[in-house]
Amino acid sequence: MKAIRLTLVCHALTQAQKTGCMPQADDSILALAQPPLAIGPAVQVLTAPERRACETAAWLSAQARVEPALADCDLGHWQGLSLKQLQVEQAQSLCEWLGDPHSALHGGESFAQLCQRVAAWLAAFDTPGEWLAVTHPMVIRAVLVQLLGCPLGAHQRIDVLPLSRLELSFAGQWRLRLGA
């Protein structure tokens, strides 16, 4: 069995992140002065379908392939709303959503559903080699929770900054790779 090395990269900073708004599929990244990281020619690149992920992936490779399973958590009718607005207009719903990973009061996908989607993708991912996947903070949190077997609520304690990376390997089971 040949090993799989998978690096998840969070998309670059967006205006929505900068201003504390919930993401939308067409959010664009803010200008990058240089590519976020160098990758080797043998690395295969996947990207979530949202614009911000595709734009980040384009900095890394002209050959990035869209992978629907890497899509951001669907936030339903909360997409594009600011956290301040939600705190004022839907404080109880926001509090419940933040405290209950099974909640989808926004009419979209719950964190628990996102975890199931990501777990199914990881279980089916079996192509050996070096991979890089550009995705979103919630997806990276879901991967960590699944990989480490944490309670779903632990995702609220994980900060995923723009362009941060999570390295994984697979040789019979998925493992977190820490490095210098």
TrEMBL record:
Transmembrane regions listed in the UniProt entry: none
Signal sequence residues: none
InterPro entries recorded: His_Pase_superF_clade-1, His_PPase_superfam
UniProt protein name: Histidine phosphatase family protein
